Amino acid sequence: MRILVVEDDAALNRQLCEAIADAGYVVDSASDGEDGHFLGDTEPYDAVVLDIGLPHMDGISVLEAWRRSGRMMPVLLLTARDRWSDKVQGIDAGADDYVAKPFHMEEVLARLRALVRRAAGHASNEITAGPVRLDVKAGRVTVEGQAIKLTSHEFRLLSYLMMHKGKVISRTELTEHLYDQDFDRDSNTIEVFVGRLRKKLPEDLIQTIRGLGYQIVTD
Ligand code: CA
User: Fold this and answer.
1) With contact defined as beta carbons under 8 Å apart, do 1 and 25 qualify?
2) What three-state secondary structure class fits 202?
3) How far does residue 26's CA lie from ligand 1's centre (Å)?
4) Domain residues of the chain, as ranges?
5) By three-state DSSP, how is residue 78 classified?
6) How far apart are CA 168 and CA 209, in angstroms?
7) Most buried residue, 1, 140, 146, 181, by most Cβ within 10 Å?
8) 169 by DSSP, 3-state: which?
9) Taking a C-beta distance cutoff of 8 angstroms, is the pair 29, 43 a contact?
10) How far is the CA of 89 from the centre of ligand 1 (A)?
């Protein structure tokens, strides 16, 4: 899952990026509205944390521009004050949720998790596929109740496939959602990670759909 953070306060931007990366997401960041708008307009994000008060282009204008051009990723707004007018404006502009500053990092993480989950159509933090159970919040995977050890890359890949189970996910989509913008996209890393996951999980869980990508079909 790939998240964009748009925040001009350098220290806060760094704290957000660190906390979100620690929670197992891939993070890109921008420190002004123009850069943030460009990234959100050109890269596929699973959610965005967007500050309202930004240089060059304010957060509300960034959000409105994304929605106008059909970019529908979930957006969590950071409002500077607990002002009702900011919230109303934000929600009218297409925000999915907001957190007022100052906030506890845990609240931002919990709201992000809920946004990503809802966008993928899941009501809870636990997703199952056959004997495999994935707890998004705890970062834990079990097979028939037995805990399985996964690296963070393996966990991210499995989470993405499980969040979108039933759909065929192309290698390009996986690469775009699992790595930041500096990742070498020509490499065959995805295949390597799928191979490793197959060794740790029931062999037929992740199906290769020839020429199209991968799919988890089990309920
Ligand atoms: Ca700001």
Assistant:
1) yes
2) coil
3) 22
4) 2-119, 126-216
5) strand
6) 7
7) 1
8) strand
9) no
10) 16
**CA 94/CA 91 separation, integer angstroms:** 5
Which pTM does this prediction carry? 0.78
* Cα 7 to ligand 1 centroid, rounded to whole Å: 6
Count other Cβ atoms within 10 Å, centred on residue 110.
15
CATH superfamily ID and name for 2-119: Response regulator (3.40.50.2300)
Specify whether the CB–CB gap between 165 and 217 falls below 8 A.
Answer: yes
CATH class of 126-216: mainly alpha
Q: What tokens appear for 144 in the block?
A: 């028939």
Alpha-carbon distance of 37 to 56, in angstroms, equals 10
**Are 2-119 and 126-216 the same fold in CATH?**
no
Distances (CA, A) of 106 to 23, 64, 70, 81, 91: 10, 27, 30, 19, 22
The first and second tokens of residue 140, run together, are 């834990």
Distance 72 CA to ligand 1 centre (A): 23
Beta strand 26-30 with 2-6: parallel, antiparallel or unpaired?
parallel
Tens-place pLDDT, residues 87-138: 888 888 999 999 999 999 999 999 999 999 888 888 788 899 999 999 988 8
